Amino acid sequence: MTHPDFDRIIDRRGTQCSKWDDMQAAYGVDPGDGLAMWVADMDFAPPACVQAVVNRAAAHGIYGYPGANAPYLAAIGWWMEHRHGWRIDPSWVLTCAGLVNAVAMAMAAYTRPGDGVIVMAPVYHAFGRVIRAGGRDLVELPLAMEDGQYIMDWPAWEAMLNGHERMLILCSPHNPGGRVWSEDELRQVADFCIRHDLILISDDIHADLVLPGSPRHRMMATVAPQVADRLVTLTAATKTFNIAGAHIGNAIIADPALRARFQGALAAAGVSPAMLGQDMVAAAYSPDGAAWVDALTEYLDGNRRLFDDAVNAIPGLRSMPLQATYLSWVDFRATGMTNAEITRRIQTDARIAANHGATFGLGGDGFMRFNIATPRARVIEATERLAAAFADLQ
Prior knowledge:
Blueprint: H1 18-21, H2 23-27, E1 35-37, H3 48-60, H4 70-84, E2 93-96, H5 99-110, E3 116-121, H6 125-133, E4 137-142, E5 144-146, E6 149-151, H7 154-158, E7 165-171, H8 183-195, E8 199-203, H9 220-223, E9 231-235, H10 238-241, E10 249-252, H11 256-269, H12 275-284, H13 287-312, E11 318-319, E12 327-331, H14 339-349, E13 352-356, E14 367-371, H15 376-389
Parallel strand pairs: 1-13, 3-4, 3-7, 7-8, 8-9
Antiparallel strand pairs: 2-10, 5-6, 9-10, 11-12, 12-14, 13-14
């Protein structure tokens, strides 16, 4: 594998890229001189093995319906076993149009309008959006904080349920906090779901993006086999290899009855995989792809150290220790500023588009999420702009 050049600046403006082309409308930040640090995709080219698949398809020139998916399923199986120690059967894999779609399919399969769907807040904002749009009741269990990191608050949560809850969505690793949940925490989640008769949706889309020196990510199925009859594991290559536009992801379901219900929801919605998506995933989940991910996480860790050092040097700002993902969750509450003042300084003064913490639900006020999966020169520039925007605190 040729060593990837993550320092290369790729101009994404004018390419129908939401991260760069929509930031003026979303945040009032001009892409001409602004920095896009919001949408969770990377400003890096995917590995050469993935690009080669796209090049071959373009050279062939016919873009019809996809057929046999045996190489795709075999690649998923290889990746799960070699990267996560999880041996799966190909029949367990159901393909969705991305993991937000997979969450919607799970709701259709396992819940009815008015049922409660649990999340641990603050959490990825698309969960709440899909839950509400589907006519379900969003139940936010607030994460507690210990030593600057999120932890699960079981005593408080037990008292918050009223019996109408049917499903729990676990974000593992956590977005936006970047926590890698421990094996003990995962087992507690499993036992909680058994105790309250909940379907457990484990969204592991960031499982491959654990930073060096962090605890190892474990798949729920490998640490809590007792929950197999209610477990749906969601995985995807899209975040890992920066191919989110392929809109492809997997629901891996070992239990036949649970799997049949999910298959029914897919059939009712007419969901089928896109032509290029399966081939891109099959190429990515390979030894070359694995080497690329190892290089990527090393680079992201360098960006994390640089960003954290600079942000934490500004009085009143604190970046939550990042174990996984490329999404830095920064706490501005100690500045005493309102959300409006914080966002004005970031968007107007620093000219940075970053996610507002309140959009992640309960507990998000006073935080901002910054995407650091961008060439290091841009991370350096972002830290310089933030230091200038909050110079009066220093």
